[in-house]
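hi support,

uploading two proteins for the ticket. first:
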Amino acid sequence: MSGTKPRLLRNGIGALTAGGIAVEDQVFILVVEDDEEIQTIIEDALTEGGFEPAIAPSGEEAVTLLRGRRGKYRALVADIVLRGRIDGWEVAQRAREIDPEFPIIYMTGAKADQWPSRGVPNSILMEKPFAPAQLVTAVSQLLNGGPPTP
């Protein structure tokens, strides 16, 4: 048998742990991106940054995850242009209906000019291409009190 099987354990104060990390300390980030290559880059960057990314390949799936697991996700990273009926703008609006303070990071290669009119307040817009470390920094900024001041 090669490798070890992950186990959930209870620590001394009753919290579940996975591989020694307290489950309640994990920060789940919902990522909605329909390009598999970009999904992988974002997933790797967020994981290396200490986050637990969950990938939704469509706006519809992202909205389903947000509604079905209220309170699980601490931030949303959404590509604006997605295949399907629901784009990143709408996913962000739905997230804010659930939690008016929900941290949102938009990603785009084309729709940056629409951010002032369609983006939700206290969000960050990242124009592609960007360095993966910039995304980790943006998520951290929003989780620690809001977007950077201009």
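and the second one:
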Amino acid sequence: LAEDKTLLPFFSNERVIRAAGGAGALSDWLLRHVKSCQWPHGDYHHSETVIHRYGTGAMVLCWHCDNQLRDQTSESLDQLAQQNLAARMIDVIRHAMNGTQERELSLAELCWWAVCHQVADALPESVLRRSLGLPVEKIRSVYRESDIVPGEQTAISILKQRTKNIALPLHVHQQQPPPQEKTLVSIAVDLESPAQYLQRQKPQREEMPVYTRWVKTQKCMTCGNQADDPHHIIGHGLGGMGTKADDLFVIPLCRKCHNELHAGVKDFEEKHGSQLLLLIRFLMHARNSGVLKWKA
């Protein structure tokens, strides 16, 4: 189904995307499943990656390729964005049907998911005809009057008629908000840590995916718009060779401001202030919000 181009209008339909968790869920899915730059045509790839939105889809690009491809359109970008969108939609629907990663999603299951989420009318007519076992509708350049069948039903009308008495799952009639993860990070103080007695401590990078997901939901630190990415502080010695700073050292930035920063750190900090100052302000916000708690 991922290679079936007739399904692309369905996968890219805004109602279908909302039914599958929304556009932001695609970014989260990509961050979990893709660990390197997806652009195959570059000679150089930076170690840091970002989500590059493209139409209704998105892709994972390194900083270098993201700067190179910004505001560009091409058939290759279209194909990559659609490929990611289709893969994520199929994964979501397969999970909803209690299927495993090893099993392929069937067309019948996809259509049943569409019926349950009241987006079956977004399925192309040709796809519905296949799922209902109807003959392929022939497209002719010229129709004779004798070829016209009065009152012939479309595939979607047949599907609606057959499913009108089906009791849909509860979540269709009454949307229940998904359970929120406990966005609380506790920072403990260990006065007996043996590492403090070492002459040279081994660098350890802390990963806090719950915290970075919360950071992404906050307002951009520079313009106040909705953030798009949690930006790890760069250029101040908080990271290592090819390594990001700890997940604690992040600030929320929208895509425009994030691109502006990576285009020139010096110009960005002259305009908006030091990243370290922005980080301290955001850490105070996280602490005052109760998301970060200090434990002595």
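thanks. also noticed: The chain has two domains: 5-167, 185-295.
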